[in-house]
Amino acid sequence: MKKKLPITKNKDVVVSWVYTWSKQQDMSIHEQRIVLRILEACQAELKGVKLKDYAGTKRKFEHGLWDVDAQMHVSDVIFSGRDYNEIIAALDSLAGRFFTYEDDEEWWKCGFISNPKYKKRTGIITFRVSNDLWDVFTKFAKGYREFELNKALALPTGYSLRFYM
């Protein structure tokens, strides 16, 4: 039996740079959802919109001198069940992945996230996103596409998410 994508009244449309998904062949679904939440925050910043409140905890993305400090609830990434080992594994794996950028003027490489933390019993995860990566996610010039955030977050596997993107 085929699963249908959820039909939602929320039509939040997010713009993603195609490179973000084309180069991440082996990310788990939870890693991809973390990246989607980062993209959602970038888009909210561009539109001047505050992020929604989930599970009584506001998601925070605060700009520092070198990084953007991020905080969110585990339920923003894991929707069914509460196997916190999965979120720890996703944070650990995503912290070990790198994003490479190159154009006519520069080349650089940085991690997707750094300093991941999980506060047990509260369900709060925190990490940092490099300002360089944040700038790429918000200031891309070409090679982008729009997608519905709720549908992308509801997809069950990394493969289906890459196909949707």
From TrEMBL:
Any one GO molecular function term: DNA-directed DNA polymerase activity
Residue span, Initiator Rep protein WH1 domain: 24-165
Domain of life: Bacteria
Single Gene Ontology BP annotation: DNA replication initiation
SUPFAM superfamilies xrefs: Winged helix' DNA-binding domain
A family per Pfam: Rep3_N
Protein family membership: Belongs to the initiator RepB protein family.
Protein name, per record: Replication initiation protein
